[in-house]
Amino acid sequence: MEHHIKSEKHEITVADLRIATGEHSSFGIKLPMIKSLMTQIHENPNKKNIFGYLIEVSAFRGVFGIMRELLDSNPTFFAYSSQRL
After folding, report:
1. Hey, which of 19, 23, 80, 84 has its CA 20 to 30 A from 51?
2. What's the pLDDT score for residue 6?
């Protein structure tokens, strides 16, 4: 999606976006904010944007989560990590 926004001029047709964060909780992103973000990404394709940050955060969170799970559940991996790190 990021590549598409950066490379193609298109009419921005979006609506308010509500993202569930739990059974009874959520947060919303309003239409003006989405349009502004997409316009900024398109007009500044070489500039870092929120999609890049979200990808980096997700990647680090995934790596750290897997490491924590392996350290807690796998004695062999724990011993190996203790020796190497």
Report:
1. 23
2. 57
For 27-74, write each residue's pLDDT tens digit.
777 777 777 777 887 788 788 777 777 778 888 889 999 999 999 999
Return the closest-CA partner of residue 14 out of 23, 25, 5.
5
Handedness of CA 51, 57, 63, 69 (dihedral sign): negative
Task: Classify residue 85 by its DSSP letter.
Answer: -
| Domain spans of the chain, in order of start | 1-46, 48-85
